[in-house]
Amino acid sequence: MTFDPRTKLILSFYYSILVLFSYEPLPLVSEWVFILLLILMTGKTKESLRWFKTVAPMAVFFSAVVWWSADVNSAFIAGFKLINIASVFFAFFISTSPEDLGNALVKAGIPYPVAFVMSVSLQFVPVMARKAGNVIDAQRSRGIPIGPGLKAVRYIHVLLIPVLIQSIRLAEELAEAMESRGFGRSGRTFLNEYKMRPADWIAVFAGMLLLATFLFLQRYI
């Protein structure tokens, strides 16, 4: 069963609140295992590993900062909270196309320009990542040591300037394409019909009930 993009977004926020109000290691690990199983069910193992290689160092760094100012238990909890929240939104974005999300938000009453900006931002993140990777490869072929380590900091401008120029060109091309297609005119139609089905409403209210129950137990028991 495929849920409406709005349903998946709401459930992702529910899960994030659940994670933020979890203060014990065992619930946090259990929540992460649950999301990890959902991610593996999508069949996108390579994307999952690449994402984990990105988020894991950030979680370790965040945990180290907390450990330095608090204790080991607090560091573990803080790191797993970061991983959990990143995991649920990773699961959301690999299961929902930016176009579907933007169109569904428009149907929910969000102004089209706002939804369009959100959709395009998500679409161009991997595009800019690929462009940055191409720039890094090109500069390395010229003998510039771009990579991990403090020595590469002095050469950061040779990466940022080409990426900035390419992003400006990409924005200009996008603006021309939007203008030629009549961006902002009223009467826009959608190829797909975005409608909350009974299953979506059941999932939303069930998630709300579970979250409220968890918060009640967390507060009074």
Concise overview:
With 221 residues, the protein is mainly alpha-helical. The protein has helices spanning 5-20, 25-41, 45-69, 72-95, 98-107, 112-141, 157-180, 198-220.
Notes on the structure:
The protein has 221 residues and is an all-alpha fold. The chain folds into two domains: 1-96, no CATH class; 120-181. The chain is 76% helix and 0% strand. The chain contains eight helices and no strands. The protein has helices spanning 5-20, 25-41, 45-69, 72-95, 98-107, 112-141, 157-180, 198-220. The radius of gyration is 21 Å and the shape is flat. The model has no long low-confidence stretch (mean pLDDT 80).
Map the helices and strands.
Elements: H1 5-20, H2 25-41, H3 45-69, H4 72-95, H5 98-107, H6 112-141, H7 157-180, H8 198-220
Helix pairs in contact: 1-4, 1-8, 2-4, 3-4, 5-6, 6-7
Key attributes of the depicted protein:
single chain, 221 residues, mainly alpha, 2 domains, 8 helices, flat
Radius of gyration: 21 Å
CA-to-CA gap between the ends?
35 Å
Dominant shape: flat
Largest sheet geometry? none
SSE string, helix = H, strand = E? HHHHHHHH
Number of strands: 0
How many helices? The count is: 8
